[in-house]
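Entry type: protein chain
Record version: 2
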Amino acid sequence: MEETSLCDEVPNLLLSFVDTFVDFSVSGLFLPLPPPPPPRPLVEFLGPVSDGTSALRLLHSPPPLQTRLPSPDRLIAIGDLHGDFEKSKQALRIANLIDASDKWIGGSATVVQIGDVLDRGGEELKILYFLEKLKREAAKTGGTIITMHGNHEIMNVEGDFRFVTQKGLDEFRVWGDWFSIGNKMKSLCQGLQKPKDPFEGLPLVFRGVKEEFFDGFRARIAALRPDGPIATRFLSQNVTVLVVGDSIFVHGGLLPQHVSVGLERINEEVRDWINGLRGRLSPAYCRGRDGVVWVRKFSTELAKDCDCSTLEHVLSTIPGVKRMIMGHTIQEDGINGVCDNRAIRIDVGMSKGCINGLPEVLEINENSGLRILTSNPLYQKKENPSGMVMGKEEGLPLLLPERIPKQVEVKA
């Protein structure tokens, strides 16, 4: 009786302790207690649909995601990370956003990470946890970190694991073990609501998967499927499209049909899908070669092959927007722009699982000046205390595929 009474008095403390214990066991980070989650939206069951899932209607929607932000004094855009934790930290350091101890020093800067944290590398969860830590630290100094969906986030929530590595499966297997231990710890206390089992309904074996990978495969599905604990915690608040000042961010590219759907609607429908309210598959505009996270019309290597007319049409329909910033397609020569700098491509393939490119990030200052901060020693002008190359003292000018020299300051 005494144990039950104690648990009745401190249920929130117990749950927070268990969650912190699991977080540290998985990520090595002691995260501050997160704010209480927003109440789950009320839904009405409408019956089964063609893909075997259930159709639901929202009766009470959560607060909308912020799709448009004013122009900050300093805006940093970071490309695809693909499970490479060390390169991710290098990208943050060259922008002077974190110190040698991995703590936020970016002040009031706004940072946009353009998606594709998942796949190709083995430290995906470490990056997700680290970005969450930095979001909380940045908020204390007026900074903002915004994370976006790439095609690999969408694929993983759909259960498409074609680009998962063995280390990636191992990392999620470890998460699954600790998460299950945490649920058992919570179940020891009478009077607490029984925790949801994310593995419920999942098979133990998987056709076409080697037996030694079954546990990691199963854990990854449990974590990332719609309404899964990792999906809802780390991915549900990602945006798919974002306007900051006079720049619009998207992982692949925006086409006229996407703008017709509506930017706010896209963000909210993808969020609702990840929260388990819209079936197994992502919205149609996220899938296929013309999906918002898949488009490559503005990212081809040769500038002459980019569809500048479509780009101009899209930008003209979004008030106040001058340029589109995108990832998804690796730029072997580094961050660059096409179509008179109206399309800026920032995926430099920095992950060892891609081309092991040198980290670069894009900076946009309050006067809409664009420049690259790079770790490429060919353009070394000054080193910061961490040893990473910052370019010239005030930053490195934007390198464009039209072969504008790196020494030229670009205003777009």
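Comment: The radius of gyration is 22 Å.
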